[in-house]
Amino acid sequence: MYKKIATAIVSLLATSTSAALSKPPLHPNLDYLQQGLLNNLHPTHSTWDIWGAGWIPQDCKTMTQNAGLNPLDVETYNVHYDDCSTAWVMCRHKSSPDPLINMIDLFGRLPVHTRQYVRHMIALPDPAGGHAYNSNGNIALFNRIDGDLTVFIHESGHSLDLLGAYADKPLSSSANWLNNYNQDSAVPDPYAQTNQVENVAQNTVVDSYNLNVAGGFACVEPGWQQIFHQFATVQTEQRNAGNLLVPGGTCTSRLVNSTPVTQSGKRKRGVLLGPKPNVALPSNLNIIPAKEFSTEGSCDLHW
To answer: Are 190 and 29 in contact (CB under 8 A)?
Structure first.
């Protein structure tokens, strides 16, 4: 009987996570939080170097091919931020309209304890317009991001939720989250209505503003009480996990980097191939357990 009840509960939580939400949006979008976040989440100093010829991380290669693009057109970089003992590996397609420095700057504005739940970033072109998704902790960004820090917070919010950064794992399907959601009368914006996974990610943006901008969310949103229990739940969870959404400190954990592979799939005679990059993590860092997920089908965050 216990097994049947437990199975039913898991099934119910999974359904509630993927189902569209009926509560009305508090605001048309979260663009009104953008400038405050940019003003208060500052860039982290960094340096970077490019990988040797012919190599690409397996996950970057997979996401490139999934987009119908050629991995041979992708450059890979080690990006060294001052607050972590090892680099983040980032990829950029040569036809991406977004410059590398933009991705480095915006990602570096995220608190380091949020950043450590992201494995790779990749910038790709798409004539259809700008959008993004998160797959297993890898964030794919299409077209120009410009200064849109909310996209980076939203997508890294998926990592925190779905990779188990919080005590309630994943937060978006936990009884705690659903109980608090049920006490509110609205969700942050129309995109949060997609499902509970996207709702948690949008509330991560709201709570990042609440935590890092003087006066908090209530100073810019008169109706803040309508979503209070949701962003307050994110706030409590991130605090109990070590203030993940607040700048400060150094990285303590990382996701294992994906394996370097050849861009072409096989080595061709006469084609120069640089030394295989070493992507091993230093022993002083804890390993964040890998989990498979993708928001590509549901994460329709466009700009």
So the answer is: yes
